[in-house]
Amino acid sequence: MKNKLTVEPTEVIIPEGKPTESGLLKEASTLGTSFAPISAGVGDVIADAHEMKSARGDVNELKRRGYYVTEHHFDRLELLIEMLVPLGARQKKAIEARRRKTLAGEEARAKLLVNRERLARIGVAGGLPASLFQMTTRSTSRLNTVMNEVDEVLQLIEEHRASLPDQDTVDDLVAESRQLIEENRQSRLAGKIIGGDRSITTITTGQLCRLLVNVMQHLSKQGLAAFPDDPTRETAYRLDNIYRRNRKKAGDDVTPTEPPVDG
Predict the structure, then answer these.
(1) Can you give the pLDDT at residue 113?
(2) 3-state SS of the chain?
């Protein structure tokens, strides 16, 4: 089985010619979802790419010495950075939005359970059988389950409101519960739509990262071979951020700092 931490693809041919955004997007889409995975985060890939940009001045010398490096390789590098930066930011924003949505859903779930219990007690105090308020499930960990259970209680309470005590409290609890249910159902619907969009964004980000890593690996091989004793150039050509998780030296930080690129 192939080690997932490996980012080296099989031999990749870097397309010639000046790249365009539309061309790169088309090229990325042809990768589908079967391209070699990248364990490094988007931020790590971009960090190494920014370092490599400083090596553009080596192009003429590399070409003179017979290395396959052109200005278009660096054009490709820089354009892919420009395309990935907003996608990476969008990915982070989507992750944070999902976290906030999860927290809000948990708060709504807990509040609905409290309201259901209060309405059940008022209902029983008003003469309704306790059996009418029994849960149809023992599991209340899912918001959707709780909303369905509370919805049934709300209908029961509304049918018998005239015979219940403390009607102002009943009305407040019913109104609050209805609002929570409606808000969270709308949120779930919006989440499905956003989730589909996020999936497309994640795939595109992974594809573009793959293209960027491909050209960076190519330039890295050329530069490190051409300048073996130049520490400044080594910083530009060595992909330290991408490969750091593969290093097992004592004291190395191998903890990812960004979400993995899906692919």
Answers:
(1) 93
(2) CCCCCCCCCCCCCCCCCCCCHHHHHHHHHCCCCCCCCCCCEHHHHHHHHHHHHHHHHHHHHHHHCCCCCCHHHHHHHHHHHHHHHHHHHHHHHHHHHHHHHHHHHHHHHHHHHHHHHHHHHHHHHCCCCHHHHCCCCCCCCCHHHHHHHHHHHHHHHHHCHHHCCCHHHHHHHHHHHHHHHHHHHHHHHHHHHHHHHHHHHHHHHHHHHHHHHHHHHHHHHHHHHHCCCCHHHHHHHCCHHHHHHHCCCCCCCCCCCCCECCC
Residues 118 and 116: their CA atoms lie apart, in Å, by 5
Cα–Cα dist 245/14, whole Å: 26
User: What is the spatial distance between Cα 109 and Cα 180, in angstroms, rounded to a whole number?
Assistant: 9
Residue ranges of domains in the chain: 21-246
136: nearest Cα among 155, 150, 154: 150
pLDDT of residue 232: 87
Q: What is the pLDDT of residue 82?
A: 92
Rounded to 5 degrees, φ, ψ at 245 are -70, -20
Which residue positions in the chain have pLDDT lower than 50?
A: 1-10, 193, 247-263
What pLDDT shows up at residue 252? 37
CA–CA dist 140, 117 (Å, integer): 13
Q: Say what the pTM is.
A: 0.56
> Distance (Å, rounded) from C-alpha 221 to C-alpha 150?
63
